[in-house]
Amino acid sequence: MRAFKNDSFLRAIWRQPVVKTPVWMMRQAGRYLPEYRALRQKAGSFMQLCKTPELASEITLQPLARFPLDAAILFSDILTIPDAMGLGLSFKEGEGPIFAHPLRSEHDIARLRVPTPEVDLAYVLDAIRLTQKNLARQVPLIGFCGSPWTLATYMVEGCANKSFPRIQALRQGDPKLLHTLLDVLAKSVSAHLNAQIRAGVNAVMIFDTWGGMLNTADYQIFSLYYVKQVITHLLTQHEGSPIPVILFTKGGGQWLELMAATGCHVLGIDCQTDLNDARLRVGDKVALQGNLDPAILLESPERIRAAVAKTLSAFGKKPGHIFNLGHGVPQQVLPEHVAVLVDAVHELSEKQIPL
């Protein structure tokens, strides 16, 4: 297997020495970039971008054309699996995702089938293959899916809602039916991530965006259990290279030890969690990814550099840190501020890391 020109992202995952701390950002390809906004306007809809491999690949590569990032993440959406199940996904400006056919009954859940990625989600796999061709092994490519619990929240509610009252009612009123839904989603997520691996991604990430809304007992029962099921069934290597797994539970800082025991290789740390505390708690079990507050990117370049320095210092000089945000890049951020962040991570960490 040919090496990457820049393999610092993968080296950090395996807690190997790096010259500079690698950096990439959640939502690094998105609405803060004028070239993304222009392409979305031309395409007509978000789903058209996702379902057109050439456009999805172009968007994936847009931030790498601007910034010396150490990894690319495929442009797609966590809700492509429910869409492939027939729920009819669309996006309305300012409202987020909406399903035409949300799950409203036991019959709705019983009729769900695990999608065949090579057929139902072929556009995602085609985008991966095209992106890898265009990347020419400059940096690794990350694939991803939503966690079963997070997918279920949207599928039951029918739209974005921070409290998701419908799935909370289902969890309390008919947990057995909810487990039926989560089981089929775990199988679907595993199948789709494995298909992404076979198509060529070099790492996979599980976004458990809404796991943090649960209490500890319910988190273990309804979210973490199914994340473990997904990870257990993932390909561990492809074409002779190991495939690492990144797990990110937003609002899950109190469960780091539980998450580190899932079999993942990296924990995404949100900005509500102290990075030094996280490192002390998980030790050498996993690498850590994070965790600058995205709101800092709306501040001055001087404030951004200071915040980067603080984050690097919080992790310390040990290997195993991937610099990232505690959540995605805000839409209002200036691209120039992202450039300041990326340059600061590389410059300051090179001074800090012992050779």
Describe the fold and architecture.
- It is built from 16 helices and eleven strands.
- With 355 residues, it is of the alpha/beta class.
- A seven-stranded parallel beta sheet has the order 1-4-5-8-9-10-11. A two-stranded antiparallel sheet has the order 2-3. Strands 6-7 form a two-stranded antiparallel ribbon.
- Strand 9, helix 14 and strand 10 (287-292) form a beta-alpha-beta unit.
- Helix 15 (301-315) runs parallel beside helix 16.
- The longest helix has 25 residues, at 175-199.
- The mean pLDDT is 96.
- The chain has helices at 8-13, 34-43, 46-51, 53-66, 80-87, 106-110, 117-120, 122-135, 148-157, 165-173, 175-199, 216-232, 256-260, 275-282, 301-315, 335-352, and strands at residues 72-73, 89-92, 96-99, 141-146, 203-208, 237-238, 241-242, 245-249, 266-268, 287-292, 321-325.
- It has one domain (8-352): Alpha-Beta Barrel (TIM Barrel).
- It is 49% helix and 13% strand.
- What sequence of helices (H) and strands (E) makes up the elements? HHHHEHEEHHHEHHHEHEEEHEHEHEH
Query: What is the strand arrangement across the widest sheet?
Result: 1-4-5-8-9-10-11
In percent, how much strand structure appears in the residues? 5-15%
Taking the sheet with the most strands, its summary is: 7 strands, parallel
Task: Tally the structural domains.
Answer: 1
Mean pLDDT: 96
- CATH class identity: Alpha Beta
Distance between the termini: 26 Å
- Per the CATH scheme, the topology name is TIM Barrel
Report the principal-axis shape. globular
Q: Topology, pairings included?
A:
Layout: H1 8-13, H2 34-43, H3 46-51, H4 53-66, E1 72-73, H5 80-87, E2 89-92, E3 96-99, H6 106-110, H7 117-120, H8 122-135, E4 141-146, H9 148-157, H10 165-173, H11 175-199, E5 203-208, H12 216-232, E6 237-238, E7 241-242, E8 245-249, H13 256-260, E9 266-268, H14 275-282, E10 287-292, H15 301-315, E11 321-325, H16 335-352
Parallel strand pairs: 1-4, 4-5, 5-8, 8-9, 9-10, 10-11
Antiparallel strand pairs: 2-3, 6-7
Helix pairs in contact: 4-8, 9-11, 10-11, 11-12, 15-16
